[in-house]
Each structure stands twice: as C-alpha cells, then as structure tokens.
Amino acid sequence: MSKQIRINILIFSILTVLGFVYWNLFDFLRWDMFDSPSFVGAARQMFGLEGGFNIQSRLSKPLVLIIPGALEYLTGLHAQYGFLMQTILAYFGCGFLIYRIVFKLFRDQKLALYGMLLYVLCQPFAIFSLMILVDAVGWFIGLLIIDQSIKYGKESTYKLLPWLILSFVSAIGLLAKESVIFSFIFLGFYQFLILKDWRKRLVHVAVSGLVFALTFILTQWLTQQLFNDSVVVRLFSQQERVGFVYYDTGNVAQIFRIIDYYWLLVLVGLFSLQYILKEYLIKKELMALGLAVIVSLLLMPMYPFVVDRILFMVAPGLIVFALLSFHRFDRFALPMILIGGFLNILSAWLIYMYDIQGLLKWGLIFYGSLLLIAFSLNKRQIL
Predict the structure, then answer these.
(1) How far apart are CA 122 and CA 312, in angstroms?
(2) The Cα angle at residue 141 between residues 138 and 146, in degrees rounded to 5
(3) Are 183 and 289 in contact (CB under 8 A)?
(4) Distance between CA 233 and CA 115 in Å, rounded?
(5) In 114-131, which positions are buried (b, 16+ CB within 10 angstroms) versus exposed (e)?
(6) What are phi and psi of 230, to 5 degrees?
C-alpha cells in the first residue's frame, strides 16, 4: 500500500470520526435551521412538486436544488435528505481538497494534514457542513478552484486557457453559493502575480474577468427567465429591505467566529512570514491569498449579510497563514491544533446549546496562554 493511499485512508477516517461527532453534537440545530425549509421549498418548486415555494431567492441557486428535487421527484424521498446527501459529499471533498492545496504549497504531507485539521476543526465547518443547507457545496467549489489555480500557477509553462476555464467555472459556481466569489478573487490576484510582463498581466487578467462577467450575466439572465429570480435581484432586494450594512459592534464578532481561537495562530504566522519566505517559494500564493481575504472581508457586508458561515469562504487563506506558525511550536504544533480545535467546537456547542455569554473571551485567554507556554518550551528546547 502506497504512502498516499495510507494518507487518504487517514484523512477519510479523521473526517468520518469528526463527522460522527459533529452530527451528534449539533443534531439539535439540524432540524430547526431557519434557512432549511426555504431550500426544500425551492427544490420542490423547481420540479413542480407539492409544497414548493420560493422565498429568500433560493431559485437563484439552482445547481444545489437539482439533486434534492430530482431525488424527491423520482423516489418520493423528502428533499431534505437530498440536501444532506450532497452536503455530506461536499464535507468529505472539502477535507481532501484543503489537504491537496496545502501540499501543493509546502510539499510537506505533515503540514498538509495539519492544514486539513485546522480547516475541519473550525466551528462554521463543524456546524454547517452537515446541515440541510448548501454552504459546504459552495466551500467545496471554492476550494476546487483554488486548488486548480495553484496547480496551473506552479506549472513551468503558463497557458491562458486554464485560467479562462476556471473563471467560467467560478461564475457557474455562483449558481450554487455566492461564497464561491472568494476563489475568483484569489484567482484574479494570483494570475496577475504569476505573470511578469505588465502588458500580459493587464490583458490576461482582464480577459479572465471578462469571461467571468459574461458567464455571470448569462447565467443570471437564464435564472431570471426560468425562475423569475437571480442573485442580482436578491442583492438589490436585500439592500432595499435592510439598507446599507457594514461592520459594527453588533456583527464584527462574526469575523472572529470564522476560525475562532485559530486567529492567534494566524497572528503568529504573520510574524513568521519572513522566515517562511526564505524556506518556501510561496510568496505569490501568500500574497494572492492575503489580498483575497482582505478584499473579501471588506466587500462581503455589501451583500448584505455578516454571518460566520458566509465569511467562512475566506478560511482557506486564513488557514494557510495559521500554518506559517508551525515552526514556532515544532513538536507542540499538533497538540496546539487539536486543543484549539477542541476549544472551537466546545465553545460553539456551549454557546448554541446554552447561550453562554463571555465564553469566547475566556477561551481566547486560555488558548493564548497555552500557545505562550508551548512557544517557550519549544524555544528552550532549541537553545
């Protein structure tokens, strides 16, 4: 049995165990999620089934409605099980893709496993990847586009066609979940950075943007014609209903909830940036990811929703920066990842189950103290 097969089995086993834990821990939320009925209703309406309706513009995302709607149409099985089936597949797909992305960057299987653990131990993934929702499908498509972008970006010979295809796929992906936009923002920055000639930079990125824009316009026109709905209509209707939305004292905490306590690892990683760039040739990838995270976080409230499960679209970039902290902890890196993940999930469960206030603050202090201890012990060992 090859080493890669053993790693694949390990990843699958970890995801299976965690999936069982997540399913049972947050089962009390699964059947009472506010958004779930609207997806079920839209899937039924798409296939002309009884109980179909379209609220919250769910028909603007027809790709994620096909499997649940077709399954109920053909077998009579409730559409909610179709949503669960596709989200479970996306759950496993996300785990394998984030491993592949990190491995492409660092060429280190241990670091790739660490990256996979960091991603799947974040509370939005733990809670919402196994719900009767479509967030995990959007995350999967976004990760796939990032994975392929890095693949083509690291090839010795640059070709424009793959970038145009990925731009096309990015626009199609918006028919599944709006969060796919993060991957296209990364793609644009990354394509710009890997090109050395300024003329090619401007022309090629502009062409990729044009492909994305034309595909987006066409798909929005089609959904408007077929379902009298589109992402654009949803955007303007929400802006009209709630007005201008941006970060404030009431919602800015949602940024913290993207990766919770792992933000401390991101900070350590940023301080380790200069050291990492000497060891790994990933300057362009890090810059593209960093810019994509910043731009996405700045623009996302315009949608206008500021919630952790939507903002989680930027998690791939944050996870990579969190990984930059690994050499500060060495043998303590894995324990710090696991402890941080345990605190992420435990805090989320206690907050959702018992509405405990102030828990995140104390958890942050506790985890920060553990990181300082681990850093000190590791530094002493080196000396």
Answers:
(1) 9
(2) 125
(3) no
(4) 37
(5) bbbbbbbbbbbbbbbbbb
(6) -165, 165
Percent of the chain as helix, strand, coil, to the nearest 5? 80, 0, 20
Q: Which two tokens stand for residue 293?
A: 């995270």
Contact between 143 and 166 (Cβ < 8 Å): no
What number of CA atoms fall less than 13 Å from residue 143's CA on the CB side? 28
Query: For residue 351, what are its two tokens?
Result: 């907050």
290, 317 Cβ separation under 8 angstroms: yes
Give CA separation, 302 vs 170, 171, 224, 295, 309, in Å. Answer: 19, 19, 22, 12, 16
Q: What are phi and psi of 358, to 5 degrees?
A: 80, 5
For residue 295 the two structure tokens come to: 């731009």
SS3 track for 78-109 = CHHHHHHHHHHHHHHHHHHHHHHHHHHHHCCH
Residue 144 to residues 65, 96, 97, 223, 359: CA-CA distances in angstroms? 20, 10, 7, 24, 35
The token duo for 127 is 């809670």
pLDDT in tens, the chain (383 residues): 788 899 999 999 999 999 999 999 999 999 989 899 999 999 999 999 999 999 989 999 999 999 999 999 999 999 999 999 999 999 999 999 999 999 999 999 999 999 999 999 999 999 999 999 999 999 999 999 999 999 999 999 999 999 999 999 999 999 999 999 999 999 999 999 999 999 999 999 999 999 999 999 999 999 999 999 999 888 888 877 777 788 988 899 999 999 999 999 999 999 999 888 888 999 999 999 999 999 999 998 877 778 999 999 999 999 999 999 998 998 999 999 999 999 999 999 999 999 998 899 999 999 999 999 999 998 766 44
Tokens of 44: 């039924």
User: Which residues, 6 or more positions from 186, have their beta carbon under 8 angstroms from its beta carbon?
Assistant: 145, 146, 149, 288, 289, 292, 317
Residue 218 in tokens: 């066409």
Residue at token pair 């083509």: 152
345 Cβ contact list (under 8 Å, min separation 6): 21, 22, 25, 121, 123, 126
Asked if 294 and 163 touch (Cβ cutoff 8 Å), the reply is no
Tell me, what's the pLDDT at 383?
A: 40
Cβ atoms of residues 287 and 105 within 8 Å: no
